[in-house]
Amino acid sequence: MRIANRAGRAVLVSADSSSFADLEQVSNGRFGPAVPEIYDRWDELLEWFAATGADLSTTGEALAPADLGAPSPGPRQIFAIGLNYQDHADEAGLPHPEVPPTFTKWVGSFAGPEGNLQLPTGTVDWEAELVAVIGRRADKVHVDNAWSHVAGVTVGQDYSERTLQLTGPAPQFSLGKSFAGFSPQGPWLTSIDELANPDDLAIECRINGEVVQQSSTARLIFSVPQIIAHLSSVLPLFPGDVIFTGTPAGVGGARKPPRFLAAGDVVETAIAGLGQIRQTCVTSY
Asked: Which of 63, 80, 101 is the last residue of a domain?
């Protein structure tokens, strides 16, 4: 099942990604229209969807990615994991972490899969990421059972304003990564049952067609289940909560010389089986 956020309404996306159907309408009012509430009823929604057999490719309307918002637009909690690929830790010159380094991104930075990215300074970097959304409360969850608490996964970017992020003496990770539009996600949420192997998804970031990041989520230091097990050992995770899982090597700030985004740059981020998102950079300084 694929769920998207179209103008604040939950919609079902066809298997070929070409069309959609309004969830409230096709469920005769049982689910929706608001997106956040569907995560509190995720198991019920999956059961209903499996029983309907709706052919959305022929009954739905045409889908325009630019009309979509973040798949979970109002999470109670947002988690982001740093240094979660060995090659990214290496390029940053930092040791591989023994526990997931965790910070947050605020919901004011959320955006849909396509649109303009306002650059507040000349030191904005890119970070392609797999994003997981919780579908069932997770409290002290064992790693072997962690995937069952995930509603689905989507494509994300953890755009980072490096100057503010690295301002000391205490770095401002969360603030530097939470400018408006710095957390685009989408184009839709893909449920785990649609993926042959959710632990091994090819991930890629391109700028103006040039591949700048290319890896697989199989290379995560801490897999999605390990992240959920760790976080839920500290506090409960709630339906709709969003987890940015980390970025592979290839970020601009680690290059010599450093490379940052500029007006006119087009950033495309793709994950196999999940689709892609696209931002066009514009300056606001």
From this structure: 63
Query: Do 159 and 199 belong to one domain?
Result: yes
CATH of the domain at 77: 3.90.850.10
Q: Which residues contact 176 (CB under 8 A, 6 or more apart)?
A: 160, 161, 162, 163, 164, 165, 166, 167
CB count within 10 Å of CB 115 equals: 17
Q: Which residue has the tokens 């401002």?
A: 172
Helix (H, G, I), strand (E, B) or coil at 270: strand
Q: For 249-285, what is each residue's pLDDT tens digit?
A: 999 999 999 999 999 999 999 999 999 999 999 997 7
Same domain, 197 and 178: yes
Domain tally for the chain? 2
H helices of 155-250, where?
Answer: 162-165, 173-176, 224-232
At 111, list the tokens: 């955006």
56 Cβ contact partners less than 8 Å away, ≥ 6 residues apart: 12, 13, 14, 15, 19, 20, 21
Shared domain for 7 and 78, answered yes or no, is: no
Model confidence pLDDT, tens digit, residues 172-217: 999 999 999 999 999 999 999 999 999 999 999 999 999 999 999 9
33 in the same domain as 95: no
Say how far apart CA 88 and CA 247 lie, in whole Å.
Answer: 7
Query: What per-residue string of b and e applies to 191-221 under the rule 16 or more CB within 10 Å gives b?
Result: bbeebeebeebebbbbbeeeebbebbbebbb
